[in-house]
Amino acid sequence: MIDSAFLKENNARYLWHPMAHPNDMHENPPKIFVSADGVELTDVDNNRVVDAVGGLWNVNLGYSNTTIKQAISKQLEVLPYYSSFRGTTTAPLIELSVKILDWFKPEGMCRTFFTSGGSDSIETALRLARQYHKVRGERDRTKFISLRRGYHGTHFGGASINGNANFRRNYEPLLPGVYHIPAPWDYRNPFEETDPQKIAKLCANLLEEEIIFQGPDTVAAFIMEPVLGAGGVIVPHETFMPLAREICTRHGVLMIADEVITAFGRTGAWTGSRLWNVQPDMMAFAKAITNGYFPLGGVLLNEKVVESFESNRDSFGAIGHGYTYSGHPVACAAALATLEETARLEVARNSRVVGEHLQNGLKKLEEKYEVAGNTRGIGLMAAIELVSDPEKKTPAGKVTSAAFFEAAYQAGVMIRVSGNNIILSPPLIVTVDDVQRIVNAADLGLAAASKTL
Ligand code: PMP
């Protein structure tokens, strides 16, 4: 057994961490977690903390789900791997391909293309969207439109539609033919407007204007997260996604819902699209499909998309895309168990009910602390936006976020810092007591953050 001195000595020295500067990781080494149970993590110094991050929006059912663990170990014994490239498949993949459609019946999904994660799923959705139009003979429809502040992973396609400069600047030039419209967000928007419904309409108007300006026959798809996650938990007004759906339909543009975070109950509804009463043409999922225990993702396709491919017998309909780990049998076994457990534990309902305590608790903190410029969220996804000047909404600096993080950690809660946002996305099995612990830690975090100003 490697001892803790070795772990601390070598922490972040010989690897580069995602989404961090290597030097910053040397100076402020990451927390080393060694075990977890329920909704709590234990670090190398034996501190126990509530995981208010839920892994990375994925450990919806916590760390102790033995049904999923056993499904994984059983599949590892029986058949640890085989590919699903043309000509071969495996039993868990076939079973999952049937069962997953039950989940997405209300959205009208009828086929799945499996991948190994969120970025892969987004890349797949973009590629299949272009191919859909080519199959139909509309070969100029190659462009994509997305929301500023959206997050869609880090592949070149995903980074191109991404709405945050941090994930774009150093990797440019990105994909040509990608255009962004403002996110429907009441706290910050270019319209100096605060009415969420008016903002939704203004953004929808800009979407339509952009489609018309580009030429509708050149636009392949519009993609959005039903609730924007990594960009700071931005909850669009309920009218936005239906308006966007109607505009897409009218102009022959596919609507892709990036449900990598929102599928499987996070918002209090089983999917983000269902929350807003929308049927997209494609839905990307990943993360909670295996409770984070094994990498898996996928793209769901509706009848319209499927029909175009499957009624096409020439080479345009053949899919020249896929991953070695598309539909990995161990991942599929994990997913089958996760879907059953997710339904059994009724986590969407818990997310709705317990999530209300979280959102109300945060609103009270927003009133108490000036540094909490805005708190927002839905279900069990929430953000506290830290500002140094509440009037001007000036984003607070790194020192302020870091002070929040450490104070919350000392109070026994792991939170996530993303720029000047504190992001909360605990497992969906949390209780009201767990949420109260999170809110209490946020209270202490905000007190510490205030002192840095
Ligand atoms: N889309 C969304 C909405 C996401 O939140 C994420 C990851 N946070 C991704 C795509 C990319 O997923 P992955 O990190 O698994 O590649």
Layout: helices, strands, pairs:
Layout: H1 4-10, H2 22-27, E1 33-37, E2 40-43, E3 48-51, H3 54-57, H4 66-78, H5 91-103, E4 109-115, H6 118-135, E5 143-147, H7 156-161, E6 178-181, H8 196-214, E7 219-224, H9 240-250, E8 254-258, H10 272-275, E9 282-285, E10 297-302, H11 303-310, H12 329-344, H13 347-368, E11 372-378, E12 381-389, E13 394-395, H14 398-410, E14 413-414, E15 416-418, E16 421-424, H15 432-451
Parallel strand pairs: 3-14, 5-6, 5-7, 7-8, 8-9
Antiparallel strand pairs: 1-2, 2-3, 4-10, 9-10, 11-12, 12-13, 12-16, 15-16
The protein binds 4'-deoxy-4'-aminopyridoxal-5'-phosphate.
Features:
453 residues; alpha/beta; Aspartate Aminotransferase, domain 1; Aspartate Aminotransferase, domain 2; seven-stranded mixed beta sheet; 16 strands; 40% helix; 17% strand; globular; binds 4'-deoxy-4'-aminopyridoxal-5'-phosphate
Would you give an account of this structure?
There is one protein chain. The chain has helices at 4-10, 22-27, 54-57, 66-78, 91-103, 118-135, 156-161, 196-214, 240-250, 272-275, 303-310, 329-344, 347-368, 398-410, 432-451; strands spanning 33-37, 40-43, 48-51, 109-115, 143-147, 178-181, 219-224, 254-258, 282-285, 297-302, 372-378, 381-389, 394-395, 413-414, 416-418, 421-424. The mean pLDDT is 97. It has 453 residues and is of the alpha/beta class. The chain starts with a helix and ends with a helix. The strands form 3 sheets. The protein has a 7-stranded mixed sheet with strand order 4-10-9-8-7-5-6, with helices on both faces. Strands 11, 12, 13, 15 and 16 form a 5-stranded antiparallel sheet that branches. A 4-stranded mixed sheet has the order 1-2-3-14. 49% of the residues are buried. It has 2 domains: 31-61 and 346-451, Aspartate Aminotransferase, domain 1; 68-344, Aspartate Aminotransferase, domain 2 (3-Layer(aba) Sandwich), CATH 3.40.640.10. Bound molecules: 4'-deoxy-4'-aminopyridoxal-5'-phosphate (PMP).
